[in-house]
Amino acid sequence: MTLWVFGYGSLLWNPGFEVIEQVPARLQGYRRSFCMRSIHHRGSESDPGLVLALDAEEGSACDGLALAASADQADAVLAYLRERELVSAAYLERLVPLSLADGREITALAYVIDPDHVQYCLLDLEEQARIIARAVGGRGPNTEYLYNTAAHLEELGIPDAELQWLDRRVRELTA
Q1: What is the 3-state secondary structure (H, E, C) of the chain?
Q2: Which CATH number fits the domain that encloses residue 40?
Q3: Quick one: pLDDT at residue 88?
Q4: Number of folded domains in the chain?
Q5: Average pLDDT of adjacent 10-residue blocks, the chain of 175 residues
Q6: What is the C-alpha to C-alpha distance for residues 172 and 164, in angstroms, rounded to an integer?
Q7: Cα gap 9→156, rounded to integer Å
Q8: Among 45, 85, 127, 144, which one carries the catalytic annotation?
């Protein structure tokens, strides 16, 4: 059986597995948000960065990509994603219903924020920009994560006003 994964952040530009099909998709009831403090990949315990997470919010929706892994690779992809995404247990692994742009309805794997986890945060955009502008983690600068995600959303024709604002503001702060 094909394993579908919902990409809304770094999975858009760095899935880390062979994608055999990708389709624009929408997840209802969640929004894309820099609401997770990153203490490994894009920050450190002493100077946390921020990464995107799916934050449950009634009436909202998040647009991204449904990424398919072949059935014979499903176990390896799942192991890889768990190692990558569940490094600090701030994400919860969920099966979610996605509406695909081609009309299909599928169930996909997604990583959503645990609002009770210590890494969960709700910050205004200016504070997010200041953190992203300075943080660096094991996978590189927090700015790279923001810039790549914003650029890929734009390439895909997926509007995200908050990410566009953050992209501009962080570039101002780091100029």
Answers
A1: CCEEEEECCHHHCCCCCCCCEEEEEEEEEEEEEEEEEECCCCCCCCCCEEEEEEEEEEEEEEEEEEEEECHHHHHHHHHHHHHHHCCCCCEEEEEEEEEECCCCEEEEEEEEECCCCCCECCCCHHHHHHHHHHCEECCEEHHHHHHHHHHHHHHCCCCCHHHHHHHHHHHHHHC
A2: 3.10.490.10
A3: 83
A4: 1
A5: 95 96 98 95 94 96 98 96 90 97 98 96 98 95 97 95 97 97
A6: 13
A7: 12
A8: 85
Q: Is the pTM of this model over 0.85?
A: yes
Q: What's the CA gap between 170 and 127, in Å, rounded? A: 10
Give catalytic status of residue 85 as yes or no. yes
Give CA separation, 107 vs 26, 75, 116, in Å: 11, 17, 25
